[in-house]
Amino acid sequence: MELNHIRNFCIIAHIDHGKSTLADRFLEITGTVAKNKIHKQYLDLMDLEQERGITIKLTPVRMDWKHPDTGEQFLLNLIDTPGHVDFTYEVSRSLAACQGAVVVVDATQGIEAQTLANVYLALEQDLVLIPVINKIDLPSAQVDRVKREMLKVFGFKENEILAVSAKTGEGVEQLLKEIITLVPHPEAEIDQPPRALIFDSKYDSYKGGVAYVCVIDGEFKRADKIFMLGERTEAEILEIGVFKPQMVPIEKLSAGEVGYIATGLKDTAGLRVGDTITKHGLIGVTGLHGYKRVIPKVFAGIYPVNSEEYPDLKEAMDRLSLNDSSLSFEPETSAALGFGFRCGFLGLLHMDIIHERLEREYDLDLIFTAPNVEYWVLIQGAYTQGTLNDPQADELIAQCSKEIRWDDRLEGYGFVLVRNPSEFPEEIKIEQVLEPWVKLSIICPSEYIGGIMDLVKKHRGDFMPTEFIDDERVNLHFEVPLSEIIVDFYDSLKSISSGYASMDYELCGLRPGNLQKLKVLVHEKEVDAFAQIVPRERSLFLAREIVDKLKDAIPRQMFEFKIQAQLGAKVIATVRRGATRKDVTAKLYGGDRTRKEKLLKKQKKGKKRMKMIGQVEVPQEAFFTVMRKS
Length: 630
Known about the structure:
alpha+beta, Rossmann fold, Alpha-Beta Plaits, hydrolase, GTP binding, EF-4
């Protein structure tokens, strides 16, 4: 296919605005999938995507379509993208492989927070944007109002905005014509040394590592020996093909085309998303511009319920990280849970999806610890070998908010990067704790402003200037600690706004925080998996909440024991779990009362001894209970 007949584009929008349904109509109109075989969310291949009604993984598909007016044959490469804020990295990778993007806005809901975020990503990549209002068939559709929003917020011209119904197919063929007219063809060179950008990858049991690629220059054929410039990995192409949307082998991929290359690599680290593939033996080939390093925002521990499954968990993590390059992990050990991994996620939904995939796809029973964020803890020089002159210091200072000034007073102090609450230093050593903050954008009807501001205030947020999109909708801006929004903030926001509010956030730096480590002791022994880093002003409330949950989750023993929450050296919340008692006097049927007293005294002495040497087994359900919201 000639380059001027190739179009690479993606669909971007907020979650549930109809991206996947629009992709279904594209497949149907172009004849890529027969009408009697297509089903709802056809490109969402995972069971989780079908069940939850959301797109988790970007999905490429190749469509061959003859223009109905000119009769010319075009090759359309579409990448369906996720809409949730946790999967923004998937969107950024899709954009790098495209020249245009279809911006979809729901006619009943208008512009949402993730719509704005995705449009800004597309503008950074200098993509051609095609604005589309979807769901015009619904009785509640407000096309004119949404059009005014798009004119004001994005600056589109009125004649550029298309109105379609992805469900009925109305206006979708015209949209395809506009894509061919407006989206430029790839700027590729067929005669140059072959180069391809890896924008996604996965592991296949038979084909090994499979790279999803956009060919920038030259061409690749089956059996070619290839070389990954970044990882310095060699391989041979076992199979090369395109997505229709299933993998279909072909003989070659040429410049401008999107497809896959099966490498047979068993070492999953050899294929890195953002790397450049070229032919082996070529000299002087430069790598393509890759992607920004993904910065995990939420951290949690993953442990197998059965310790013997640790090797299976390690293999599963290796393979899943190839399929999801935003997942990071490193080994860790817990006294309560044994061997496991400390994992970094892009958000709470991302963490939930990884949990589900590990259990479903790899048949593992797992325990996830409570999520937390990353802290920088400055500690007094007497307690550490590290100082602010260490190589990581530049990274630390770059992340900090402008309000923090590194004066001479801090020179000589060391720092510790804390991703696990159990690693938090003792209070006597701490000079300052720095926590990550985010810029939070919330789009909602104006009637909910008061409730949302109260919610943000409870979560230690700062108010920023407000923007009115129109007379009915407003874009609220806040700066909030990341730790305050990763657990139940989104659910509370939806509840307060009757489901109408949407949110998006991005990191804005580190700020000092009045934070302490909250330890949990069961029978006077610390359980490291329950430790949390909490604001001092809310520590008492959180401590009481945790011990009350554990009182119901940990079964009674043959002896009395205490569940305590400790802040520094001070116990701030305690509950007692009474002993189970056997009726040792049941066998008595008469005689002097001293016989009964003798047995009770013997039982009391035994329980006292058990309390001294006994151990309390914390069941798996207790760890889930602490994670669960009240």
